[in-house]
Design brief:
single chain, about 260 residues, alpha/beta, 9-stranded mixed β-sheet, two-stranded antiparallel ribbon, about 20% strand
Amino acid sequence: MTATASHPFLDHPRPLAIAHRGGALEVEENTLPAFLHAVGLGYSHVELDVHATTDGQVVVHHDDTLARMFNDPRPIAALDWATLRALRTKGGAAVPLLSEVLESFPRLHVAIEAKSDAVVDPLAALLERMKVLDRVCVGAFAPDRTRRLRAALGPTLCWSPAHAGVARLWLAGLGLPVLQGTPFPVVQVPVRHKGIPVVTSRLVRAAHARGIQVQVWTVNEGAEMTRLLDMGVDAIMTDRPTFLRDIMTKRGEWPAA
């Protein structure tokens, strides 16, 4: 592997397996049992999503509302932590605080997606207070959120760009001079966007030539996992962590315990 990005979140044997939301097709996503499941399988990295409550608590949940997981239509942004902490999923799990996840699994590396503008400031404060910048990587679809996190947390923050940064890297893969230096250490990208292939051999080569790692989401089919691993991507995020582990084990790519 030729990528040279250096950060404790990235400095692991590659290819890297990342449990998306802890393994959303195997467990109730974004819950402590989900992250325990991933760790039990031997995963060193998970991906999760964060929102903020009305009183500024950083909680782990993907959707804006609780409808899908909790059969409750209320938005997280309208609830305080005392109200939210009393609720349970259909399987009996609670919404965890991000701090709970980081404290419960002190060796776990966590890719964090900031799902709202309101979560940015409390998230930055939490990461700084807990001194966990060495084991997290942040990103967001809204580039201003990532910009604010970078401004608050400084150059040691691992971060992935939004669409514009990915587009520049993709164009660099075509030979266009649109990406100077190494502006970001990693891109976390879908296989395709609106039917257009994002992860191509050219993109991977362009990224690795600049020391940028390529982490791909969300890959759940065996043939696609194999194709991407053969292409040389640095990480795969999956909702099926058991399945990805089995494929990587057969290829001799699962890290030794």
